[in-house]
Amino acid sequence: MKILVTGANGMLGQDLCPILEDEDFDVIETDINNLDITNTDNIEEVFDLYKPDFVVHCAAYTNVDKAEEEKELAFKINAEGTENLANACKKADIPILYISTDYVFDGTKKGKYLPDDKTNPINIYGASKLAGEEAVRKNDKYYIARTSWLYGHHGKNFVETMLSLKDKEELKVVDDQIGCPTWTVELANAIVKIIKEKMPYGTYHTCGSGHTSWFGFAQKIFELYGINVNLIPCTTNEFPRKAKRPANSIMENNRICRKWETALKEYMELRCE
Fold it and tell me: What pLDDT shows up at residue 272?
C-alpha cells in the first residue's frame, strides 16, 4: 500500500514515516517543499505522480496563540487546505486520516470526552481544526484521529521546554488544566493500528491513556530526569495566554495508546541515551 504523508518533516511526521516503513508500507513523504495543500493544482499533480492508496494528513498550522492574530492563515491551512486534500481523496476514492485535536472541545464537560461528544472550540486554532474535521467527513472514507498535549524528539514541545528551564530558581506551571500527554510514537503506532486493522471509518481519540495537569506532567518529567526542581502550581489566570485553553481536555481513547506515564518514561530513556 502506498501511503502519502503530509507534514512529513514535522514532529509527528518524522516519527510516523519510519514506523510506517517498518510495517512495509510504501511511504510518500511530502511537506511544504513538494506539496502545498492550499494549491489544488499542486495536489492534483502529486496525486497523478504518486497515485497513493491512502493519505495521512499531518500538515497543519499549529501555533495556538499566534492563530488568534492569524485567523485567515490558520483557516487557509487547517480548513481550506484539508478540504482540498479531502476532495482529492474523494475523487481518487481513497481513505484520508486527519490528525485533529482536543481543542475542538470547550473543556466544560465533567469527565472524559467521547468521540461523538459535542464540539465547541474556544480558540481560533481549535475552530480551524474543527473546520478541517467537517471537510474530511464529506469523504465517505475518512478517519479523524484527535490527539492532545503532543511531544516528540523532533520538535518544540512541553517536555523539552520544561527541561530547558530546569535551572530556574522556581518554575510556575499551570495546575488547573487537565489532559492526556501523548508521545508522537504512541500516536504513530495508533495510526498504524487503524490502518492495518482496517478499523471502521470515523473519529478516534488517539492520545495517551490516563490524565494529568500541566503541573503533574512537569513533575513526572523532572522525576524521570532525576533532578529536583522548585515547581510551583499556578492557575490559568496567573499565566495568561492569547488563546484560551480548555480546562478539561481528557479524552476517552479506549486504550488505543499506552498510559501516558509509561510512554513518557520510554521517551526520556531514549532521550538520555
Answer: 76
Element (H, E) at 262: helix 260-271
Residues 27, 3 contacting (CB under 8 angstroms): yes
DSSP state of 130: H
At 273 the pLDDT is: 66
To the query of whether residue 125 is one of the catalytic residues in this protein, the response is yes
pTM (two decimals)? 0.96
Using CA atoms, how far apart are residues 156 and 253, in angstroms rounded to an integer?
Answer: 24
Q: What is the DSSP string of 169-223?
A: S-EEEE-S-EE--EEHHHHHHHHHHHHHTTPPSEEEE-S-BS-EEHHHHHHHHHH
Tell me the angle at which helices 82-92 and 124-136 cross, rounded to the nearest 10 degrees: 10
Catalytic residue among 113, 125, 142, 151: 125
| Side chain identity, residue 96 | I
